[in-house]
User: What shape does this take?
Amino acid sequence: MPHLQSRSLRVYTDSLEYLDQTRLPQAETWVRCASPEDWQVAVKSLAIRGAPLIGLSAAFVLAQYAAQHPGQENEWQWVSDRLRATRPTAVNLMYCLDVMEACFAQGPAALSERAAALFEEDRELCLQMAERGADLLNDGERVLTHCNTGALATAGVGTAIGALAVAKKRGVALHVYVNETRPLLQGGRLTAWEMADLDIPYQLIADSMAASLMAAGKVDKVMVGADRICANGDFANKVGTYMLAVVANYHKVPFYVVAPYTTVDKACATGDDIPIEQRDAAEIRGATGAFGDVVWAPENAPVWNPSFDVTPAALVTGWVLDTGVFDQAAIVRGEHCR
Assistant: This one.
């Protein structure tokens, strides 16, 4: 039996199991992760995904490696550096590894305890920000979301979807529009699956339909997650988020970003400083791997495929963190960084 478990992660003494998110919604397949190399493959393929979950799972991988290689702190550091380089955009990974590295001198047992504490902390952070986000939702509202920000991506109820889940428990009636979201259609495959699991009414749309939906007056709020929030409030999220923010701003639809304090990078001044990962061109040319093998573009078509884009703070109505809800004036004062 695992000694810790979330919707998509099971933690054992010497290994992890993760719910392979590339196989959802057709199959719930749990896969063993017994080494840093296993973890890197899973993260790069998006079998393990979600900024908080990536950081938490890396902490356990590092703790388990240290337990298997006691007294080899130089090796622990080498492994930590390799894990850190796997996903440069999502700052939660850096946060968790920084915390773990600070415990190196205390030995493997302390690392294991610290990883478990990070897991429990994320559960609580999810609940706190979800409660704050739910306070912003009113009965009968129609909410547009992007990518996947639920229990699959965290140790707890999620970030933006966590707010929807808490509102549902309070009896608030919502209708959710789910952007299908590239890469790998994480909204269509994962968020739609979570909406059904939560019994929240939803409709799946292509990303390019969001503007028409807002123009028709059918969206009351937009709620998204984040992979990194800068000191000035700019934030990185799954590619397509910036486009949503621009359209929401034009149509005067409130736009909220929901994330834990662990996603705030005080050292990152603006969105210009966020590294943006590029993904395999094959994802744009067609569907491969777990999704079959269908190519709809010329085999050698040039491709630009960033995983994330950056939304300027000026387009955000509010930042919903576990520590509070911050408007633009509060962001200018740096209150989200305290």
Summary: The two ends are 39 Å apart (CA to CA). Residues 108-134 form the longest helix (27 residues).
